[in-house]
Design brief:
single chain; alpha+beta; Adenine-n6-DNA-methyltransferase TaqI, Chain A, domain 2; five-stranded mixed beta sheet; four-stranded mixed beta sheet; globular
């Protein structure tokens, strides 16, 4: 018991320290993301989303349409429960015979939720960077454009964008994105008169933010992975300590 108590205390202390570190890193990540995408210095133009690209609404499908092998699909609810900044594979697939009735996001599109329980959930975005088109639910929108999709997705996470987006969300039993309003929300385009340099700068910013995102959110790398690993390590040694070899039973002598 003393060994287990000591190990429990050490694990709890280390987990608390890692969790505190993760909280600090998340705040730091949010701060630097907002700073990088504010563009207080340098050549930049803020353009309304409606001038940069177009919005395509998805088509309805339900859980009854889900299959193990079918058309890759993104349900709006998965965007704020499963996906991060970008995705190349889908969590769900729907029946292949539905193909003609569905609406799709193309590689490079940014898929946004159309509804949500909170204002922040409404309009949450994931950049679709898979190699094939993907079906999207009717409570979501595909934003089709010609700039870096992860750059757009990161911009849509910023405090400034969320505050602007909130002005174009209707409140009720369900919060809903007002698409004609969201088209007016501007996002920054670095070096707008030089498309090549603009894309290079977008890619540079994405690379920086990807490193921060991995550190603070990745369950296969970074601090979340370390916290999960320590918990598994604790459970392994706890179980090992509490597993005792069985005594051999004596066999009755035969006549």
């Amino acid at each position: 018991m003393r060994i287990l108590d000591t190990f429990t205390a050490l694990t709890a202390e280390l987990t608390a320290e890692l969790t505190a570190e993760l909280t600090v890193r998340q705040k730091q990540y949010n701060y630097y993301r907002d700073q990088l995408l504010t563009f207080e210095e340098g050549e930049v133009e803020w353009k309304p989303l409606g001038e940069i690209g177009e919005f395509i609404r998805g088509k309805r499908f339900t859980k009854a349409d889900y299959v193990d092998d079918g058309i890759p699909a993104i349900h709006y609810g998965e965007i704020y429960t499963h996906y991060g900044v970008a995705a190349s594979h889908t969590l769900s697939q729907v029946r292949a015979e539905m193909a003609a009735s569905l609406c799709y996001a193309e590689p490079g599109d940014v898929v946004m939720t159309g509804v949500g329980e909170t204002v922040e959930d409404v309009g949450k975005a994931v950049a679709w960077i898979g190699s094939e088109k993907v079906a999207i639910h009717d409570d979501s929108w595909a934003f089709r454009h010609s700039i870096n999709p992860k750059f757009v997705s990161y911009v849509m996470q910023t405090t400034a964008f969320i505050n602007e987006k909130a002005k174009h969300v209707s409140s009720g039993k369900v919060n809903r994105l007002l698409i004609n309003g969201i088209k007016k929300v501007p996002i920054p385009i670095p070096y707008p008169n030089d498309p090549k340099k603009s894309l290079e700068e977008q890619a540079h910013i994405v690379a920086i933010l990807d490193k921060f995102d991995t550190l603070t959110h990745s369950i296969s790398e970074g601090l979340p992975h370390e916290i999960a690993w320590r918990q598994k390590q604790y459970e392994y040694y706890r179980d090992l300590l509490l597993t005792f070899p069985k005594k051999e039973e004596k066999q009755c002598a035969s006549d």
